[in-house]
């Protein structure tokens, strides 16, 4: 979570002075309840999961009503919790990835989330099986044609306001809006309708890490009761809906879900984060047509003016050439200008130094340059490239692998644009007897521990229901 995210939450009023006491079921009781939960999941024909901030606390994102939650600390006049890593680099928790596996297995049918951290979508839950009731801090949407844009940076506004970017559809071009609700905004109708539909169909609604106090969202799980469905609540605090639940588990969400997955003999898949960037090479002949004046630019795929948060700097060097001076690009825009004989070919080496929160410190990409050879244009199967990168990264237990997914030319100005996909994090979810540990496997062998999981309410932020036409 970034400081900017905490600042965004400063508008939150002091609502619902509820008890902050946390409860932990005794080990033998917890084990029995976990086994009951696993059996409910196994027998379920239409499982719906309803999530709050408590599933993301182990990702380094504070909750709201826990002892160290944002609302609690504000009420006590204390400073907000500091982030352990940038908000845009938060990785899905063990619970997020367990839900992905349950969805792939056909058990989980739909996820309803009150969170704005975007981790469900980033973890791999299909967009059509997810309702983000309060929005997504990393999503913009076009109010004209309905396309959604998932960003690798936190969108700068909240409250369904216009941002600085436009829809990239050539037939549209309308201004984009953020998707995060402010307090006065109504919950998005389309998202709510989908959530209600699936709750009415559900035979089990599993509530994870939410205090179930913010209306009208907190009443969604109750929709399952009319059809004979059951409600299961996993939370460290008591909730107003406990009496309606068939099973209430007071325990760390990650620990409970890990236990249920063990009983079901299901593996929790690793999380592999893939980021995108583009290299733009622009050229122009000198007046005497002897030289080429060229510019190298490393930019976001979300637009040349969009931030590129996962790259700290770019070091440029040249192989087998004394004609060019190496350079370090440490400020955005990452841009280098040079002049070259038109007949001369050479090879550049770009060393990308990654920002905090990435799984490895750097990686290198070699780029051959020959201004006399026309560039090939192509667009590869993005999903196939992503899958191959994931498999390689998991097999090698390191990140930094990259691949070209698209190359195109632009006539004015004369430019060659190459889009790269790169692995910037790998997280494996290991099992230990005392706690749950997530190892972020990288060239630097970085490790982080999932420390604790407060079951509480979530942040209030989301987009209006529009066409589910996505452009990620």
Polypeptide structure, described:
- The protein is 18% helix and 31% strand.
- With 472 residues, it is an alpha+beta fold.
- The chain has 2 domains: 3-252 and 452-471, TPP-binding domain (Rossmann fold); 272-428, Immunoglobulin-like.
- Strands 11, 12, 15, 18, 19, 20, 21 and 22 form an 8-stranded antiparallel β-sheet that branches. Strands 3-2-1-8-9-10 form a 6-stranded parallel β-sheet, with helices on both faces.
- Strand 6 (162-166) and strand 7 form a beta hairpin.
- It is elongated.
- Residues 1-19, 69-73, 432-436 and 440-472 have low confidence and may be disordered.
List the helices and strands and how they pair.
Blueprint: H1 3-8, H2 27-43, E1 47-51, H3 70-75, H4 94-104, E2 108-113, H5 119-123, E3 130-132, E4 139-142, E5 147-150, E6 162-166, E7 175-178, H6 189-201, E8 204-208, E9 230-234, E10 247-249, H7 253-263, E11 271-285, E12 291-299, E13 311-319, E14 327-329, E15 334-341, E16 345-354, E17 362-370, E18 378-379, H8 382-396, E19 402-410, E20 415-431, E21 436-440, E22 448-449, E23 469-471
Parallel strand pairs: 1-2, 1-8, 2-3, 5-23, 8-9, 9-10
Antiparallel strand pairs: 4-5, 4-7, 6-7, 11-12, 11-20, 12-15, 13-14, 13-16, 16-17, 18-19, 19-20, 20-21, 21-22
Helix pairs in contact: 2-7
Family: Belongs to the sirtuin family. Class IV subfamily.
GO molecular function, one term: NAD+ binding
Region (Disordered): 435-472
